[in-house]
Amino acid sequence: MSTVLARVDNRLVHGQILETWVNFTDANSIVVFNDDVYFNDLQKDIIRAFVPSYIDVVIRKLDDVPRLIEYISNENQRCIVLFFNVHDALNAYKNGLLFTKLNLGNIHCQSNSRQITPTIYLSGEDIEHLKALEGMGIKVEIKAVPQERGTSLIKAFKKF
After folding, report:
1. Residue 8 and residue 151: Cα distance in Å, rounded?
2. What is the pLDDT of residues 43-99, one digit of tens each?
3. Which strand (E) or helix (H) includes residue 25?
4. How many angstroms separate the CA atoms of 77 and 86, rounded?
5. How far apart are CA 32 and CA 9, in angstroms?
6. pLDDT value of position 103
7. Which of 149, 148, 119 is nearest to 8 (CA)?
8. What Rg do the C-alpha atoms of the chain give, in angstroms?
């Protein structure tokens, strides 16, 4: 059992996940942890149609951490867990979903955010949440694809 990748990427399931991260991590399941997708049957159907049939797709709502933990605890699972935003990742961790590293893949620009890297825009609240995760021992790394050299938050802040 394991979470082989915990990632914040507001695109959720897309080509980078399927073409690079699944192979790199040898994942056999993708977990989308998002209320909007959970409550939208069309979005769920699109995601399931997009993902190859040999990869399990699990879509959970934000208050369903216990069921998510139960699923991930299955000894045969190698899960990529996808969060839409930093807030969701922090809440999942606080509610018992354990991971040691959080990958930031893509976070779109919002009115209250600033650009940290070409693909990462963070609000003050995002930064506080990431600092809280790092304070709990979680390594936060900005990395779009496995072949890329990752950037720590501290280094990213110094660049921008």
Report:
1. 15
2. 999 999 999 999 999 999 999 988 888 888 877 889 999 999 999 999 999 999 989
3. helix 22-25
4. 24
5. 10
6. 97
7. 119
8. 15
Q: pLDDT digit string (tens) for 77-93?
A: 899 999 999 999 999 99
Label residue 53 exposed, middle or buried (CB < 10 Å: 0-12, 13-18, 19+).
exposed
Confidence of residue 160 (pLDDT cuts 50, 70, 90): low
Domains and CATH numbers, the chain: 2-159 (3.40.35.10)
Residues 6 or more apart whose CB falls under 8 angstroms from that of 136 comprise 93
Q: Which runs of E-coded beta strand occur in the chain?
A: 2-9, 29-33, 56-60, 78-83, 101-106, 113-117, 120-123, 139-142, 151-152
Cβ-in-10-Å burial (0-12, 13-18, 19+) of 39 comes to exposed
pTM: 0.93
- Amino acid 130 reads L
